[in-house]
Amino acid sequence: MRIFFLLFSTILCLSGLQAQQSRLQQQIRQLIESKKAQVGVAVIINGQDTLTVNNDVQYPMMSVFKLHQALAVINYIEKQGLSLDTPVYIRKEQLHPNTYSPLRDKYPQGNISLPIRELLTYTLQLSDNNACDILFEYTGGTEATDRYIRSLGINDFRICATEEDMHRDLNLCYQNWTSPLAAACLANKLIECQLFTLTNQDFIKETMLTCETGKDRIPKPFSGTSIRTGHKTGTGDRNEKGEMIGCNDVGFILLPNGTYYTLAVFVCNSSETDQTNAQIIADISETVFRFIQP
Is residue 43 helix, strand or coil? Predict the structure, then answer.
């Protein structure tokens, strides 16, 4: 009788959780139903409870793939016996002029050496495109990054084009894609699993926690609070139809009570304004938070 009671109680709890998740899915769908964009969402709560909306679409990652790259870079340097302080020589011709690059703005003549730590800060914190491609060249290209992420058991994605490739041909932006759940799973691995030495893994997390881009996206509802948000944005150009190819954000949210969750939001082929695209992500972020901490 006791076993039956425990089993029945478990079924009731699961049923209640499923009902709550269904309500959250409905709330998210209501937020996006009138928007002229394809929107995909994934949430993983405390590494266990998972929820998705429109997950069966290949969303162009844009600069979100710099998170994937950063993990592959750390894997590379640890296997090579290198450190974050290892210098990388940067040639002037690697600092392409017609792309977003605070690195180039600071060192326009190139021909300098910077530590890997600084290059990763440029990519994760500032989303620098030249720093990204320099790191691709240093660690074996997009193929090496793609291969490493698959080694973690994540497969619903593809990385095959550099920032310079996408700059030359906007259609290649669609070749670097992910499902929202695959992106949320990657962020969750960074929080839950020991992928690297503690020092190197903490560096990645702390750099994401101080991200300078997309403060009007996932972190917006938490401005002025004690809630910590580490995230990586991705922002695309407009395609030939005038649609924004991608406005994205993926990250982890750490609540003061010890609860944590990862959230991935991808806004694809949007005819909305840039401000509206960012607000879609912020609204979803707030809705998910209200669900987790009513």
Answer: strand
